[in-house]
Amino acid sequence: MDRRSFTQSLSALALASSTSLSNSALQVAHSVVAQPNSVDDSRASRQTARTTVNTPLRLGIIGAGSRGQELVRSFLRVPGVKMTAAADVYPLRFQQLNKVCGYEVAAHADYRALLDRKDLDAIVIATPLGLHAEHVLAALKTNRPIYGEKTMAYTIEDAHKIVAEVAANKQIFQVGHQYRYSPWIRAAMARVQAGEIGDVTHVLAYWNRNNSWRRPVPDASLERLINWRLYNKWSLGLIAELGSHHMDIANWAMNANPIAAQASGSICCYHDGRETDDNVQVVLSYPGGRRMVFTSMTNNAKMGDQLWLYGSKGSLNLTLEDATFFYEPKKVEVAKVAKTGDGREPVVTSASYSPANEMPYRGPGSPVQIKEGEDPTTAATRAFIHCVRTKERPIADEHVGLGSALAVVSANAARVAKHEVAIASV
């Protein structure tokens, strides 16, 4: 069954079963890192009427499920934004969306009907990963700015198609790597890039949970619609849904895309018919022998969601709420070789080595201080609206999305093949 048939069949099943940062402050913050977009003058002139918060910016969303609704909540926190239309194959989502918005949003069972509308200024896509490329490529052809959820595409080929289409249309495209917009992560990464912890050689990342990742289903016919993350046809599992965020930060820290991937995984706890693994382990190789290791399990939440960046001068710990630097103590000096009476020089063995430098870091470290914090998703959606209004290039653009997709798709291929997979250079 192809994707269109899948979408149509799900629609039939669903139908059958269903009877505050100011805008000016944002511009200052965003201008530090945003770069001019290459949108042509003619398109810019057509959109001039919608460049201020005083003119409602009308959004359409494809995929109004849990993530889509969370994005809508974030977009509606931005002044001058209105959710105008939505497309989804599960009709009950429209009722939920209307409650989120506080007004009725135009509903479409077919996303192509939404794309045909003339009253939308930008499109948001929050559908299952296996449908990202189909929806993004179709939306780009309408010459409107696109906010597309991560991972950018299910295959590397589709990711490259999206990059090419963005360039051909000279349009704004932002990927939902919201940690690129997190205030404390941005502040911390600026210090890393300035050399505060030396050259980053290793990134260790965790995203552990203690739940099955399964959602309740009111009707068995809706299983793959609601629990799509558990099935290979539409999901790349924990590597894509969780690991993609950390792999993107690793690319950022290394200032490079990975060149090889190794991965493993299994279903060891939740033998409930799922196809995607309930635990995964990934090793990404970067130029210069550098490494990123990601692990995720769903039956033990120890370590939670965090990354450690390691350099020769220190380390950085990043979490969903904060960032903390730690600095390396002085390197242990190797004991001088003592000469014996006969002139020979005995070797110092490990038994003579002090364990003091082998203990974990203690103490609070040096927390990153920021004046104002903001939820990463809200920051990302606010930045997208800013880019639509100003024609600036998003921070998490198609090239950022491609780098993360290369890591995710290759790691999944390595997991399936059970051997290291080389990653072609972009």
Would you mind describing this structure in some detail?
This protein is of the alpha/beta class. The protein has two domains: 3-180 and 377-396, Rossmann fold (3-Layer(aba) Sandwich); 183-372 and 406-422, Dihydrodipicolinate Reductase, domain 2 (2-Layer Sandwich), CATH 3.30.360. 34% of the residues lie in helices and 19% in strands. It contains 13 helices and 17 strands. Strands 15-14-13-12-8-11-10-9-17 form a nine-stranded mixed β-sheet. A six-stranded parallel β-sheet has the order 4-3-2-5-6-7, with helices on both faces. It has a two-stranded antiparallel sheet with strand order 1-16. Strand 5 (122-125), helix 7 (132-140) and strand 6 form a beta-alpha-beta unit. Helix 4 crosses helix 12, helix 8 packs antiparallel against helix 13 (398-417) and helix 11 crosses helix 13. The longest helix has 20 residues, at 398-417. Residues 1-51 have low confidence and may be disordered.
